[in-house]
Amino acid sequence: AAHAIQLGAAPGSSRGAQSSAPASTDVSKVPISLDVLSDIQRTIAGQQAVVFSKSGDTASLECKSIFDSLQQQYTAVELDQRADGEAMEAALLLLTHRPMPNVFVGGQFLGGNAEMVEAAATGLLSELLEETVAPPRGCVVPTGRRSPTTK
To answer: Considering the entire predicted model, what is its pTM?
Structure first.
């Protein structure tokens, strides 16, 4: 049984979740918006484990199967099923300098498929997952109190 939370189509997109980007697109030439970068950052920060992948890609499937074999919940962001998938892939390429899949654990970039396989084989992945505590929900809001010396 899969333990993935799958993030399909981007909210508010006009294209359906099943649309896919052409395979021949050079994502290094796709413009990157701050909205896409923010969406990536929020996804990584809000989840214990995230796999940015393409649904039919063998390396992506292998990364997700490693999490499945550990019975570890993770978030799978299927770029080929998102209207903004090309832009996300371009942003991730800029950030990580790695093609898909991109795996993040505890908000940190672990790597691609080769690094994921190695981390699982050496026990590093299990250690990282044990160290990673679920991120807190909400935010800290200043109370506006003044220090005793401030008037």
So the answer is: 0.71
Alpha-carbon gap, residue 100 to 85, rounded angstroms: 12
Please, is 34 exposed, middle or buried when counting C-beta atoms within 10 Å of its C-beta (0-12, 13-18, 19+)? exposed
Residue entry with tokens 């950052």: 41
How would you write the pLDDT of the chain (151 residues) with one tens digit per residue? 344 444 444 444 433 333 344 444 566 666 677 888 889 999 999 899 999 999 999 999 999 999 999 999 999 999 999 999 999 999 999 899 999 999 999 999 999 999 999 999 999 999 999 887 555 444 455 555 555 555 5
Q: List, in sequence order, the alpha helices (H) in the chain.
A: 34-45, 58-69, 85-96, 113-122, 124-131
**Structure tokens that stand for 16 in this block:** 């359906």
* Helix H or strand E encompassing 115: helix 113-122
